[in-house]
Specification:
Elements lengths: L1 E5 L3 H11 L6 E6 L3 H11 L2 E3 L2 H5 L6 E4 L6 H10 L3 E4 L7 H14 L3 E3 L7 H11 L6 E9 L4 H5 L14 H17 L2 E9 L11 E8 L4 E7 L9 E6 L2 E6 L2 E7 L29 H18 L7 H20 L3 E2 L5
Parallel strand pairs: 1-2, 1-4, 2-3, 4-5, 5-6, 7-10
Antiparallel strand pairs: 7-11, 8-9, 8-14, 9-10, 11-12, 12-13
């Protein structure tokens, strides 16, 4: 599959490097950035023709798919441009920063019949895949609660490094929209459809940005389960991402890339302290691969996207998954602004 990467920044380089690591599966044909020198510089490292115009790139018959690596508030419009030109699309998270933009993209996706995947690569790691399979199989019983924690650190220099960082228009939000959305997606994958949220957010440790660096929320799910979310970029020096899933027959805890505890009423308890780790190889990981790192999981999501296009099936993580995560994030922001609970309705 022949790719164009749109956006030659940090994430664009990650995608360019990933595509070139898949010989026989993917080829980097073009690198597109409105700042031509950035496209030229990245092209010098990874190949592909540097370009500065997205429409011209999408008009090329030798490009099959476009990877959108722009500031978040530009995602949907760029993806729609690619779809209208007949290209399949991978969009970096989040899908965009408003539900209206996400819905425009979904409408064009449905009309064109082309494939759109949204990056949320942690689902492809073995620990989340194992826990998801255990939840689906009923090994944890009725799911009662979940906790998603993203305690990151970002310096002031991080926010000052790009004019779009920390803006509502292009960044869409702060610690939750950008750093925390990965574990939010995992929480939704495990607990299902959220229906209501109550939240608080603050800017506590940074300056000159329009968004939060700390947010906490309580989420009620359609099943009756209750979830808790904490996301921050003000937790020096940064701690591991952590997801806990609790049920009336078992529980599981994932820390960063590892399953550190997995207990069910039918099995002997196992946890990190006991020295007896759950064996992820005991059962198949379903649609996920057995890769360990986030980078490998990112690669696996690309392979899933390529296979989805080839086989004419939906990708593992599509636009509706991404929209659901976005609606929850925006609901959290609205609740934090108003001080009131927010109902979540989903896409009709």
């Amino acid at each position: 599959m022949k790719f164009a990467v749109v956006g030659a920044g940090v994430i664009g380089e990650t995608h360019a490097r990933l595509i070139t690591s898949l010989p026989g599966e993917a080829e980097l044909v073009a690198l597109v950035d409105v700042e031509a020198d950035r496209a030229v510089a990245l092209s010098g490292k990874y190949g592909g023709e540097p370009m500065s115009d997205l429409k011209q790139a999408c008009a090329r018959p030798d490009i099959d798919a476009v990877s959108i690596c722009l500031p978040s508030g530009l995602h949907a419009d760029a993806a729609i441009t690619a779809l209208e030109a007949g290209k399949h699309v991978i969009v970096e998270k989040p899908i965009d920063v408003t539900l209206a933009a996400a819905d425009r993209l979904i409408d064009v996706e449905q009309r064109t019949g082309l494939t759109v995947a949204v990056i949320s690569q942690r689902r492809f790691q073995p620990a989340p895949a194992f826990v998801h399979q255990a939840v689906a199989a009923g090994r944890l019983g009725r799911i009662t609660a979940g906790i998603a924690e993203s305690p990151f650190w970002r310096s002031q220099e991080y926010y000052d490094s790009g004019g779009w960082r920390g803006t509502v228009e292009l960044d869409g939000g702060g610690a939750l929209m950008n750093q925390g959305i990965h574990v939010v997606d995992l929480l939704l994958w495990m607990l299902g459809e959220p229906v209501e949220v109550q939240a608080y957010s603050e800017l506590l440790a940074h300056e000159r940005i329009d968004v939060e660096d700390t947010v906490a929320a309580t989420v009620r799910f359609r099943s009756g389960a209750i979830g808790s979310i904490l996301a921050t970029t003000a937790a020096y020096p940064g701690r591991p991402v952590r997801l806990s899933v609790y049920g009336d027959r078992g529980s599981a805890v994932i820390e960063q890339d590892d399953l550190v505890a997995f207990d069910t009423a039918d099995d002997e308890p196992t946890d990190q302290a006991s020295g007896r780790q759950p064996n992820l190889a005991e059962e198949p990981a379903g649609e996920a691969s057995v890769s360990r790192s986030v980078a490998d999981a990112h690669r696996d999501q690309y392979l899933d996207f390529i296979a989805a296009v080839r086989d004419g099936r939906p990708p593992a993580i599509g636009t509706r998954d991404a929209r659901r995560a976005l609606e929850l994030v925006l609901g959290i922001y609205e609740s934090a602004r108003t001080g009131a609970p927010v109902r979540l309705t989903g896409r009709e």
